[in-house]
Amino acid sequence: MKHQKRIFAVSDIHGHYTILKAALDEAGFNPEDDKHLLVVCGDLFDRGRENRKVYDFVRKLKNKVLVCGNHDERLLHIIQDKRINLCDFHNGTEVTVEEFFGAGIIGAWGELTFPKHERMAGNLRRLIGTMADYYETEHYIFVHGWVPTTENERGEPELLADWRNADKAKWSEARFLGWNSLYGVNDMIPEKTIVCGHRPTRLAYTFDPSRELADSGIYYGENMIAIDAGTIRSGRVNVLVIEDSILPREDFI
Questions:
Q1: Where are the alpha helices (DSSP H) in the chain?
Q2: CB 233 within 8 A of CB 215
Q3: Are 37 and 5 a contacting pair, CB within 8 Å?
Q4: Are 199 and 227 in contact (CB under 8 A)?
Q5: First CA to last CA across the chain, in angstroms?
Q6: What pLDDT score was predicted for residue 115?
Q7: CA 41, CA 117: separation in Å to the nearest integer?
Q8: What pLDDT, on the 0 to 100 scale, is given for residue 11?
Q9: Which residues of the chain have pLDDT under 50?
């Protein structure tokens, strides 16, 4: 049996709670309405300064689907390995780590100490561990970067035929794929629309010359919708609001 939902899709929040909350309020999202569903297409954390507020907000929501982004996956590895490296400082991950676990937690060689914060580390592991590689409704597929791909005999990328059953390595790779490099290059998924983040929508001017170069609004392509507003640069979060039927496979929620 299918259930109709009003879906509010966002992506690449990157620790910007205030902007996220204002955008959801403006879009009419009601956490208490069972017919409302929040779908986050990855990258809840890093770069912003309100990561804990983002965490507290999504953790309490019942009507949500969290799709894993590359920054979410990286934060999980950092917590598991108890170590941070140079690229993490470039991404602002050290700010996220200190926000969750306190200043001074990062040692001289990037090692992390959690003696007083094991509970928080466990909570984050559980939250990120429940994130899905993708979420599918009757007419939409929500991902972070893109659907897993392979190469054809000409060395060109194309969608993996059995992408739904791709292994974890393929999905981890797909989180880094940019829609701007793959949209229009390979065949799309029949009767479905891919909703994705990871790469900012301002890049859509290459597909639509009528768009302003700085336009960070939602880009509606053919069988594809890009929603990453490039929040750290634009100061906004896009909220895609759509009505669709939830498939029987509801184990993501």
A1: 17-27, 51-60, 70-81, 86-90, 93-101, 118-129, 168-174, 179-182, 231-234
A2: no
A3: yes
A4: no
A5: 16
A6: 62
A7: 28
A8: 98
A9: 250-253
DSSP assignment letter at 83: B
Residue 159 · residue 147 · CB < 8 Å = yes
Q: Position of tokens 């991404």?
A: 91
**What residue type is 221 in one-letter code?**
G
Report residue 252 as tokens.
Answer: 């993501």
- Predicted pLDDT at 1: 58
Whole-model pTM? 0.94
Contact in structure between 192 and 223 (CB atoms under 8 Å): yes
- Residue 33 falls in which region: left (phi positive, over 0), alpha (psi -120 to 50) or beta: beta
Residue 76: both structure tokens together: 């999980």
Q: DSSP code of 204?
A: G
Identify the pLDDT of residue 251.
Answer: 46
Provide φ and ψ at 183, rounded to 5°: -65, 125
The residue written with tokens 């017919």 in the block is 35
The phi, psi pair for 213, rounded to 5°, reads -60, -30
Q: What is the dihedral of CA 161, 218, 181, 51, to 10 degrees?
A: -90
Contact 179, 143 (CB under 8 A): no
Residue for token digits 């993996």? 160
